[in-house]
Write a structure and sequence with these properties.
alpha+beta; four-stranded antiparallel β-sheet; 4 helices; 4 strands; 56% helix; 14% strand
C-alpha cells in the first residue's frame, strides 16, 4: 500500500511539473506573439525577443515535415511516459528531468496544434553569429535531457544498471 502511495505521489509530481512548465511556456509565448514581429532588445544585440514561427523541428530543420513532427512529438511523449514508468519511479531517481521534458514537449505540441508552428522568440548572438531562436519549452527539454544524461553517467543512477521497478532478476 505504501509503495502505491509513493508511486502516486511521483506521478503527481511528474504531471505537476509538466503542467507548470506548460503554463509558463504558453504564457511567455503569448507575450512573444504580442510583439508582432517587432524585436525587443533585452541586452543590446546579444539577447533579444524576436518572434519566429518555426514550422520545422529543432534549429528550424525539416520545415516541410510539420505534420510528421506533430506525430513525432506525440511519440516522444509516449516514450517519456514509458521511460518514467520504467525507471523514473525509483526512489531518488531524477523524475524531475522527465517532468521538464514532458512539459516542454506538451508546450511545443500545443503550438503545432493551434498555430501550425512552434512559437520561438529567445534570440541570442552577436552580429550575424546567432544561435537558432528557441523558446522555454525547448529549454526545459534540453535541461531535462541534460539531467538524464548526467544521472545516467553517474554511478548511482545509471539507466543501464537499472532495469526498472518491474524487472524480475
Amino acid at each position: 500500500m505504501r509503495e502505491k502511495e509513493g508511486m502516486k505521489r511521483r506521478h503527481l509530481r511528474l504531471l505537476g511539473l509538466a503542467l507548470i512548465v506548460l503554463l509558463i511556456d504558453q504564457v511567455t509565448k503569448r507575450f512573444a506573439l504580442s510583439l508582432a514581429n517587432r524585436p525587443f532588445e533585452i541586452i543590446g544585440e546579444f539577447f533579444s525577443l524576436s518572434l519566429v514561427m518555426n514550422r520545422g523541428g529543432i534549429f528550424g530543420l525539416f520545415q516541410s515535415f510539420g505534420p510528421f513532427l506533430l506525430f513525432g512529438s506525440l511519440a516522444a511523449i509516449l516514450l517519456i511516459l514509458f521511460l518514467f514508468r520504467r525507471i523514473g519511479q525509483e526512489e531518488g531517481y531524477p523524475g524531475f528531468a522527465f517532468g521538464l521534458i514532458l512539459g516542454g514537449a506538451l508546450g511545443n505540441i500545443v503550438d503545432r496544434l493551434f498555430y501550425g508552428a512552434v512559437v520561438d522568440f529567445l534570440d541570442f548572438g552577436i552580429g550575424t553569429l546567432r544561435w537558432p531562436t528557441f523558446n522555454l519549452a525547448d529549454t526545459a527539454i534540453t535541461v531535462g535531457v541534460g539531467l538524464l544524461l548526467f544521472f545516467n553517467f553517474s554511478s548511482h543512477y545509471s539507466l543501464k544498471d537499472n532495469p526498472g521497478p518491474h524487472h524480475k532478476p
